[in-house]
Write a sequence for this structure.
């Protein structure tokens, strides 16, 4: 099969260091669409790279280096395929149309999968939330997963503790179908495959990873995995979000991209940031998943103060998008009800903020607007 | 690089002044990053075709080879030339293998040899995909192992095919073989693909003197060897068809004071290594072996290769005799053929090569319900390990089952959306093998040059004859059987007793002895009569024979007490027999050994694993203190897997027995048949032709069925045999051409009731069922009680 024999080429291309998905996808379009070439033919046609593909010298050097890794990736591909994993490149009809529609050129170039690929073409919902979610959030998750399963919708989740795990287990309990989006390389997921063996072989679970097959879990990959969960689903349900962390960042990112995000309206006294998200534009839903027209609940004073604090942080972020500052410098520009130390702690907890040591002081800046989808971890 | 430039380098690195033309053709293509399949005879210098480019490339050349001994020899040669080379194999420690892999990663090696099965080594997998590991070229040695149409298909080669297909274009790949028919060549080319060029040389081995000796019995083979083996100069190999025969022939040579040793896959690695080394250093006149020996014995001066059993195809034969005379000096190649009997074993290999279809389904069902390791599959399916290995290899090949690594252990997974089992490919392969078998029969009957026959079969179209085979020389070798030799052979048979190898480090068991093999004499029949036909106690001649075995093996060794294995079903037969043994040896008998719980008859379990489980902690002894410090002679009637003896040995050792020695009446042939090479060898060659089916029936009946069922089976079997005889006469065909004895036995065992049941009978294809199905069902109906 052509796709199989091209696996090493796809692996090589998809993990080109420092290229990013969009740049790689643009090249893929040039190769397979504009020039109707296979990747194999492209890698053979080195003398055409400059003219036909308008590649810079630096890009050509990157590709030459990558080309020298093809034999190694052939060994990797053999191991990958023989263990029953498959690749789904972005130009494949088996690639999730929802994912492509949501992320467009930023969609991952290559999906590594195991299980029933057809699941990717079904209607899907994502249920997301905290790792340490409350009982009510878990019950809500169970409820939404049940409803989805009854409506033959696929439940997408991220295989983290808490809401993710509940979403998966509930979908299985209600005989539904699930996509597990991994925060790691697919070949490092042996224990999960063992655990969900029956569901995978029965075609009820598809395991998906966008990372290098041997990449081990790390927090960066977990963050980068979140946008994929959102993008694989037509509807996004939020069971419970804190004011920072993966769920928060993912929802904010989703809202920026204009996605409809359905957030469970919290009960009185719940300590979470669901209401803040609703205020930021997410749609409130009840325990059954029905949309509540008026977010009358967004009124409590405590919440308002939280909101103003969050607005302040938003202001800090937009400031840090333009410049690199220490917490002290920030507090001089934005009025916030917190100390420099508290602000530093807060900034460290935010996914997009990076720090750098300059003149013996820690400076902060915004790394990039959306989380990185592709990491060339090996 | 021009040829002249290359030859200058050749001279300085390897010391040769020039390449053969075909060598240069290949090397030139390899240096240009092409893919080549090289088919050349043994001794041509195929390895230089990759060794030379390996020295010119940047990075490591990886050579996949199934031949450990060959890898070892080549690595040594390379190292002597100052070329950095090493190999990874199961014969090295993990640390040694890891160090070799590390050296390759660090660019310290030019050539790295690896056994295809080592492809699953975790460290290897991690290293080879490390992008710092520079791979220059991939070589597939013994490339015919890629092809299922080949004679030596190795399942782990599938990974190599997959790998080669994934390697980029313009990456040099060399596949080499000394034995490939046109069909196998085409298959290899199709599988490796990507513009591969085949370079084929001529396969004539002019120094091999080929002979076929027609005989009428196994005795004649043994007598000819006794008369002639010492007359052939140098050392060589005698190939037998089964493991048991390696032992019997070696013992026969030992009896004749000929320095011989037996070798088969049942022998431990250390001993195998010693024997291989001994062969290399001419310590034996001959090694008697199954085809387990030879893959990779790179001894230039093997002066003779003698087959006591015909192979299944000319290509197998060419491969096996190819091990002789690599130094191009005259060597002698003898093939014995007993036309009355010798087709049984190879045909049973062909017919029995694959388990029944319903067993495939059993394995699929087991793996579908749970992700299992090999032991898990064995337990869940109650099938023999050898069968399961064949089934798993097929299921993996067909994409139904996936083999995955779970840490360091292998697990089998069912693939979602797996295709249905394709049985047509099995049938096609079976037919192809039968066709090849016909060709070996043609070789045996051939009146023309035998070397030309083999080369033509391989697609070589030899223009000349060899001039040295029996047909070219018009020399018909015959066996001169004299009374003296017949008596000598009879004496050997009466004094040869099979050893029960049970010694291990954790118990005080010592190796014991059996009075006979179950199936090569009338011992099995006598046991069966007593056990299942109300024939009374085991006859006294069995007692005498067993005592003879005792004295031969144990000499004057003293025992304190005789114990016997408590029966599951057969009443007091063993007890009475043990009493007689004890009385004859003047040793006390104890009746204290009992079963602690009800066990199942061992025969219902197909695997050693389940047999062991059945007996675990099943025995108890009254007054255990009496065993402490004693040496025990342990009596049983039949020794099969050895699980009973081993369990008792463990138990008695725990109670303080200082020595536990087993003595049994018969060792089943199956006890020695734990490998692929022997899986169908229940059809022993030692049995005369007219005895074969009777013995099979007796063995199967004794080990598998109750007496009434056995009677019914024999009745059906005899009726089928008579029908087959008449049918064969009517069609003017030999009886086996209707169907084989083994198939006949399968039918009688399974008693199919419908056409669908017939489909499950091994050896009955759709064509045969269409032709004879109705007749078969009618015979069963009429003869079933």
């Amino acid at each position: 099969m052509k796709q199989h024999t091209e696996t090493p080429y796809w692996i090589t291309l998809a993990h080109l260091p420092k290229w990013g998905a969009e740049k790689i996808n643009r090249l893929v379009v040039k190769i397979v669409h504009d020039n109707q070439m296979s990747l194999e033919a492209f890698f053979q046609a080195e003398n055409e790279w400059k003219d036909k593909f308008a590649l810079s010298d630096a890009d050509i050097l990157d590709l030459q280096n990558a080309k020298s890794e093809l034999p190694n990736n052939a060994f990797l591909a053999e191991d990958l395929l023989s263990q029953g994993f498959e690749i789904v490149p972005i130009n494949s009809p088996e690639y999730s149309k929802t994912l492509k529609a949501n992320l467009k050129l930023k969609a991952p170039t290559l999906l590594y999968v195991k299980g029933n690929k057809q699941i990717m073409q079904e209607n899907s919902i994502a249920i997301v939330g905290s790792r340490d979610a409350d009982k009510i959030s878990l019950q809500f998750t169970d409820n939404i997963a049940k409803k989805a399963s009854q409506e033959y919708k696929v439940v997408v989740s991220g295989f983290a503790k808490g809401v993710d795990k509940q979403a998966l287990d509930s979908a299985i309990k209600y005989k539904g179908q699930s996509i597990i989006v991994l925060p790691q390389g697919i070949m490092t997921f042996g224990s999960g495959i063992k655990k969900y063996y029956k569901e995978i072989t029965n075609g009820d679970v598809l395991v998906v990873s966008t990372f290098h097959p041997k990449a081990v879990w790390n927090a960066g990959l977990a963050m980068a995995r979140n946008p994929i969960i959102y993008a694989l689903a037509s509807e996004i349900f939020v069971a419970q979000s804190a004011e920072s962390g993966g769920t928060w960042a993912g929802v904010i990112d989703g809202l920026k991209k204009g996605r409809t995000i359905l957030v469970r309206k919290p009960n009185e006294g719940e300590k979470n940031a669901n209401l803040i998200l609703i205020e930021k534009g997410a749609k409130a839903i009840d325990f059954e998943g029905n949309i509540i027209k008026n977010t009358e609940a967004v009124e409590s004073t405590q919440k308002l103060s939280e909101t103003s604090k969050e607005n302040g942080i938003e202001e800090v972020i937009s400031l840090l998008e333009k410049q690199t500052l220490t917490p002290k410098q920030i507090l001089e520009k934005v009025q916030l009800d917190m100390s420099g130390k508290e602000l530093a702690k807060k900034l460290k907890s935010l996914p997009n903020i990076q720090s750098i040591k300059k003149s013996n002081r820690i400076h902060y800046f915004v790394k990039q607007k959306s989380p990185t989808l592709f990491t060339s971890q090996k | 690089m021009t040829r002249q430039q290359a030859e200058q380098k050749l001279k300085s690195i390897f010391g040769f002044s020039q390449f053969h033309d075909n060598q240069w053709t290949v090397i030139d293509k390899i240096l240009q990053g092409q893919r080549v399949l090289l088919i050349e005879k043994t001794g041509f210098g195929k390895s230089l075709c990759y060794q030379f480019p390996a020295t010119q490339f940047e990075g490591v050349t990886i050579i996949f080879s199934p031949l450990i001994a060959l890898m070892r020899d080549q690595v040594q040669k390379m190292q002597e030339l100052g070329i950095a080379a090493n190999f990874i194999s199961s014969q090295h420690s993990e640390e040694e293998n890891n160090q070799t892999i590390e050296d390759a990663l660090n660019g310290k090696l030019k050539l790295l040899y690896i056994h295809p099965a080592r492809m699953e080594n975790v460290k290897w997998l991690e290293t080879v995909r490390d992008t710092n590991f520079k791979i220059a070229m991939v070589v597939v040695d013994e490339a015919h192992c890629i092809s299922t149409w080949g004679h030596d298909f190795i399942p782990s080669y599938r990974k190599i095919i997959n790998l080669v297909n994934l390697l980029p274009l313009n990456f040099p790949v060399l596949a080499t073989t000394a034995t490939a028919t046109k069909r196998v060549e085409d298959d290899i080319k199709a599988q490796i693909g990507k513009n591969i060029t085949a370079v084929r040389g001529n396969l004539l081995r002019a120094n091999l003197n080929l002979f076929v000796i027609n005989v009428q019995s196994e005795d004649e083979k043994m007598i000819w060897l006794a008369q002639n083996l010492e007359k052939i100069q140098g050392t060589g190999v005698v190939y037998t068809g089964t493991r048991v025969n390696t032992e019997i022939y070696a013992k026969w040579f030992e009896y004749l004071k000929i320095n011989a040793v037996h070798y088969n896959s049942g022998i431990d690695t250390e001993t195998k290594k010693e024997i291989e080394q001994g062969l290399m250093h001419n310590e034996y006149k001959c090694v008697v072996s199954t085809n387990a020996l030879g893959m990779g014995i790179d001894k230039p001066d093997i002066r003779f290769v003698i087959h006591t059993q015909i192979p299944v195809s000319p290509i197998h034969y060419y491969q096996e005799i190819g091990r002789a005379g690599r130094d191009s000096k005259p060597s002698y190649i003898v093939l014995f053929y007993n036309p009355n009997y010798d087709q049984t074993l190879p045909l049973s290999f062909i017919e029995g090569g694959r388990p029944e279809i319903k067993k495939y389904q059993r394995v699929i069902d087991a793996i579908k319900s749970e992700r299992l390791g090999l032991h898990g599959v064995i337990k869940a399916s109650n099938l023999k390990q050898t069968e399961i290995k064949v089934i798993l290899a097929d299921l993996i090949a067909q994409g139904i089952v996936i083999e995955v690594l779970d840490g360091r252990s292998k697990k089998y997974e069912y693939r979602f959306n797996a295709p249905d089992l394709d049985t047509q490919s099995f049938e096609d392969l079976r037919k192809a093998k039968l066709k090849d078998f016909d060709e070996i029969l043609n070789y045996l009957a051939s009146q023309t040059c035998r070397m030309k026959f083999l080369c033509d079969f391989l697609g070589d179209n030899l223009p000349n004859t060899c001039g040295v085979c029996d047909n070219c020389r018009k020399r018909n070798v015959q066996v001169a059987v004299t009374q003296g030799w017949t008596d000598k052979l009879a004496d050997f048979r009466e004094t040869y007793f099979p050893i029960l190898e049970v010694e291990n480090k954790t118990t005080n068991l010592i190796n014991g002895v059996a009075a006979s093999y179950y199936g090569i004499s009338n011992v099995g029949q006598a046991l069966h009569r007593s056990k299942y036909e109300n024939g009374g106690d085991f006859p006294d001649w069995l007692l005498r024979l067993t005592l003879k075995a005792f004295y031969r093996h144990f000499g004057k060794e003293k025992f304190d007490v005789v114990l016997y294995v408590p029966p599951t079903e057969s009443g007091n037969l063993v007890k009475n027999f043990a009493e007689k043994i004890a009385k004859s040896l003047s040793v006390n008998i104890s009746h204290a050994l009992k079963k602690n719980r009800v066990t199942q008859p061992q025969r219902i379990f197909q695997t050693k694993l389940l047999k062991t489980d059945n007996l675990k902690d099943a025995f108890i002894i009254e007054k255990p203190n009496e065993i402490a410090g004693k040496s025990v002679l342990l009596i049983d009637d039949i020794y099969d897997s050895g699980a009973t003896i081993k369990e008792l040995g463990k138990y008695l050792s725990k109670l303080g027995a200082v020595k536990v020695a087993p003595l049994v009446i018969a060792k089943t042939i199956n006890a020695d048949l734990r490998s692929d090479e022997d899986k169908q060898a229940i059809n022993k060659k030692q049995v005369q032709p007219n005895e074969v089916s009777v013995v099979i029936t007796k063995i199967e009946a004794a080990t598998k069925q109750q007496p009434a069922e056995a009677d019914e089976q024999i009745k059906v079997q005899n009726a089928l045999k008579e029908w087959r005889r008449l049918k064969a006469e009517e069609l003017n065909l030999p009886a086996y051409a209707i169907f084989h004895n083994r198939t006949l036995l399968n039918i009688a065992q399974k008693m199919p009731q419908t056409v669908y049941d017939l489909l499950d009978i091994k050896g009955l294809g759709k064509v045969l069922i269409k032709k004879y199905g109705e007749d078969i069902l009618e015979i069963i109906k009429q003869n079933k009680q």
